[in-house]
């Protein structure tokens, strides 16, 4: 059976904390009340017993002879036992240094500690003790002489009675205190829920506003009321949101301006570059014919190369601008993957430089022009920087729901610090490499084309050396 997780939210913790405080307060109050009531009950029983015993002794002691006998003491205790009333005490009397004498033999057991304390005391002495599990109270009352009240007569009267009724009262208090804690805790649950709701309401509003901002609604604000810490947090959130909105608006305006500038410049350069490319083609033929002197031919070749590089860069800039503007669209067609790979290699005369392994009859719905751009960028990058010891390989396979194409080379690989940024714009593997070898946009355009198909393009270093680019595209077999 799967165990349900214990709630750990702030609401639960607030309610639990509130209930704990209520329970601790109720228990503390009950404990203090119990202690005070217990002390009051026992003190009242003790004071009442001493008062009653003193009254009874005061009325009976004057009738005793100056030197009372054991019979006199037994008669005194019998009268005192009869006067005990509801306390049902048992008394004993003893002359100084003599044993206690009771009306009934063994009826009163006087604790030895009480006898020692009474031998030197001028007033009543009390002691609580237990006998056979029964709580009891013993009182020792020295009796003064009739003619000289301040002088002890040597006679001490002892009384002992059960505190069971008082113990039952104390037990009733304990039970009442225990029974009262549960209702207090249950009743406190209602204000705890209300307090938690009131405290968490601004927190929930703040969370909802944060989620909206994370979704792009930077104009989100929350209503702030009060002057507590949560209100300060709400005002701080609103200030942060306003700053983020202003910064994001400025950044979008700057980014849109930069994209528009790049698109406009690329578009304006495209026409003159087309004418320049046509002219450089003628110049290339003249340079190759040998009719020009070597220095002029070299200069014309350099101009032609730079013109073609500039034309490629302009085309790349226009392509990336279309992605940024969201104007790039797919023109899907049912194509043979092997034929597409062969055409990509043949168009660039790479047939003898790349090993191709594509299953026969592997077909997919793709945009052939955009996949050609992806493969051309990956293969061209591998041929330029992959070394010559291991040939560049293009592999394709079909999984259950994906078409996977990999391009591997045997070069030194991509530096680890550069690997996370290899698809960023204007990123080059070697900062010292000549600018004529690439625009720095090829892999970025390839990644954008992969995303446009709903796929991914990743780069990694092979364990044995070299780089592996993996293009994964959605694929649904017919």
From TrEMBL:
PROSITE patterns: HAMP, HIS_KIN. Its EC number is 2.7.13.3. The keyword Hydrolase does not apply. SUPFAM superfamilies: ATPase domain of HSP90 chaperone/DNA topoisomerase II/histidine kinase, HAMP domain-like, Homodimeric domain of signal transducing histidine kinase. Pfam families: HAMP, HATPase_c, HisKA. Residues 197-249 form the HAMP domain. It is found in: Cell membrane. Residues 1-30 form the signal peptide. It comes from the Bacteria. It catalyses: ATP + protein L-histidine = ADP + protein N-phospho-L-histidine. Keywords: Kinase, Membrane, Phosphoprotein, Signal, Transferase, Transmembrane, Transmembrane helix, Two-component regulatory system. GO terms for molecular function: kinase activity. InterPro entries: HAMP_dom (IPR003660), HATPase_C_sf (IPR036890), HATPase_dom (IPR003594), His_kinase_dom (IPR005467), HisK_dim/P_dom (IPR003661), HisK_dim/P_sf (IPR036097), Sig_transdc_His_kin-like_C (IPR004358), TCS_sensor_his_kinase (IPR050428). Its main location: membrane. Residues 264-477 form the Histidine kinase domain. This is histidine kinase. The lineage of its organism: Bacteria, Bacillati, Actinomycetota, Actinomycetes, Kitasatosporales.
